Structures are given as structure tokens and as C-alpha cells.
């Protein structure tokens, strides 16, 4: 098999809110996810607005990386990771989000984490906002409904850019910025933007106003970052779930084409620096006011990203005039006209397992934008069982990752796509974002923790740990 580029960034991906813990330590303030309860596959997480002693909040302790970061980073080094994609919790730096000065204790924590990564020759890839907006900004200002929150985000970005300008090269502005447009579950808009929709509002208009403010915030952050260190590589991050037409019926083809506009809307603006015509036409026809201010055109044009980071977990399929209302229509990534794809398998949580879809995605994004791509999330959520010896033989995870890495190599070697790296989610078990569960495990390192918060937090290497280490050492040539 052909080799990937010599400096390919093999790594792993995590988010501060899901694995750090220490939610009220070191001067940290409450974030929007700190008021989200545990849920299950069948019971959505609740947003309680305040800490309620009658509920369990799994993100409060996560897997306690806050106290165990040296141990965990040593494990990452033993796996030979070349990079770690993680995030800086906004609320550790500005607990409420609108303080005049940052929290020095929070900055020192990330000094220590980043220094520990660099000591082990692991390149930090830092996301600025990964579902960790200060709760105060959501409750007092209305989140990204309010342009004042743009200023708060850019100030936060400037502080961490300056602090780590000689230690961190790769940055991402917002995690899965496009997921907030999926309104079937309120946690997406809440965690992305600190916004809950009101019944009386024009929901579509609010969504695009919020989106515009985040696009402005991202562009301003890029511009500030490049001023601080011109060598920074600053990217965006989208969730990309390719949309297939169910058949060659022209109406199915057009159904997929129209639905794909929401897949491309954010990167169209962040890469090209202006709104696409299909969006402007839609705003005009629906009389949507996105809150455009004089000077926004220049801000967007001057704050374009250097690379596209994206998550890839599944594909979805649409059929025009589909009226089948089955469970699949409610699954993350589905659309009103989504329909079951008979040609792909599904995970325990109903997500389509489609490695060819990753190659398709890489080609689609690269051909559209012609800038480097970075697969910053990809993985299989599954129920792992320890055998009588305390080992985990997660061959199903190995098979999943292997097929997706093979698809990546094909995109690079056969199709000419420029891919910077691959960081599977999550390199160590952590709290699931969508359900708040621990039993939905993605990691290559097991953490002894259950859905109720019980367990020793002991770390155990899974079979996939050793497999991935060999993949990294061979730069993708030895896939087992």
C-alpha cells in the first residue's frame, strides 16, 4: 500500500468538556455543557440551566484528566501519537466570559498540559471552542444571538494565541460549527452557540443570525492569530455527513443537492470569505435578516482559514417525498427525507458504517475548496467488555479504523487529495457528547467508569491501542 506523506499527523482527538473534569476547580466557571444531564440512546440529555442536585452531570468529572494529565499523556506517548487534537476550556480562561482579565490559574494549567505534550514530542492541535461556552454568556447575553459575544470570543482567542504563540502551531476556531443548524435536538444549538429557541421566534432567522455572528467571530480570530504569529495554521471544523441520493431518479439527485447546501454553507464562507449565492438568494426569498453590519464583508474576506478540519462518522441517504417516519429519521445526521441505506451496516447506536463515504467526503471537500484537509474526528462508539484477564479485544474497532484509514490512503494516493492528518475520536474513553454515556466507548484506552459515575478510573490499553501504535510506526503501511 502506498505511503502517506512523511509528516502525516497521526494522533487522537478529545474535548476538554468530555474528559478533563475539575469543572469547578482552578477558578473555572460553568460552561453550557456543565448544566447538561446524563442521557441514554433513548432518553435525550436535559439542559437544566442551573446545577440541580437531583440530576447527574457526567461532564463534571469526565475521566479526571485535570488531575491525571501526566499519566494520560504518557499513555499517548507510548502509543507514539504525533499530535493530540484537544480544546482549551473557555471557562478556565474567562470563567464568565466577560471578565476584564483572564484567569491565570487556568492559563497555567494549559501551560502544563502543552509543555507535557511537547516533552513527549506530541504536537498540540487546539480547538478554541468545543461546546464549552461560558454559561454566563448564554444566560446573560443570549449566547451568539448577541454580537457582544463575538467580542468575548475574540478576546479569549487573542489571550490564548499570545500565551501559546511559540508552542502551538495548529488551531481550530469552532468545533462542528455547522451542527447547530440541526434543530431536532436542542443540545446542538445550545452547546455550539449558547442559544435555546423560543416558540414565538422565526427559528430559521435566529439560526442564521447566530451563524453569521460565529462566522464573523471565526474570521476575526483568524486575523488576530495571524497578527500574533504569521506561522499559525488556523482551520475551521465541520461535521461532514455526505448525503447520497437514494436512486438515480432526478428528484432524488436534486433532493441530495439541495440538502447538501447546509453541509457546505459554513466552509463556503470560511474558506472563500463570502456568502454563496444560494444562501443570499434564500435570505432574500425568506426575508431573513442575518444581522449584517457595514464592514462584515471585509472581515469575512480577511479571515479565511488555512485548512478544513472535519469529523466523519457516517453517511446519510435521502429520497424525495419520503414519508417513512422510522427511527432512522431521528438519528444524528439524518434529514426529514432520510431513508435507510440497505448497502451499509450500522453501529450499536444506529450510525451508518461507511468507510467509502470518507473517501467520497475527502474528494468532495478537496475538489470544492483546494486547501488541505484534516480528519480530526472519526471513530466507532461501541460497548466494550473486559474478558476474564481484564483485557479488551476490540477487533470491531480495529476493523472500523482500518477501513477508514484505507479509504484515506486511497484518497491521497489514487485521487490526489491533500490530507494533513488523522486523529480518531476519542483516543481514550470519555463522556459521550450526544448521550452523556460512558458505555458508548470510542477510546483505544479503557477507563473504568460507568454511566452512573462509578468506577476506579483505572486506564487499560485495549487491543486497538497496540494496533494503532503499529499503524503510526509504519505511517499507515502496516494495517494488520
Automatic annotation (TrEMBL):
Highest taxon in the source lineage: Bacteria
Keywords noted in UniProt: Glycosidase, Hydrolase
Gene3D superfamilies linked to this entry: Glycosidases (3.20.20.80)
Matches recorded under Pfam families: Glyco_hydro_1
Active site feature: 377
Enzyme Commission numbers on file: 3.2.1.86
GO molecular-function term, one example from the UniProt record: 6-phospho-beta-glucosidase activity
Record family assignment: Belongs to the glycosyl hydrolase 1 family.
Record protein name field: 6-phospho-beta-glucosidase
Taxonomic source organism: Staphylococcus ratti
